[in-house]
Amino acid sequence: MMASLREEFRWYHPEIKTTSVHPFFIAPPASSVEHWDKQSRLPDVTAPYVAEMTVKGIKEERQTVTVPSHLYFLLWLIKILPSPAGEMWRDMFYAKINSLDNKVKSS
Question: Which Gene3D superfamilies did the record assign (predicted)?
Answer without folding.
Answer: NAD(P)-binding Rossmann-like Domain
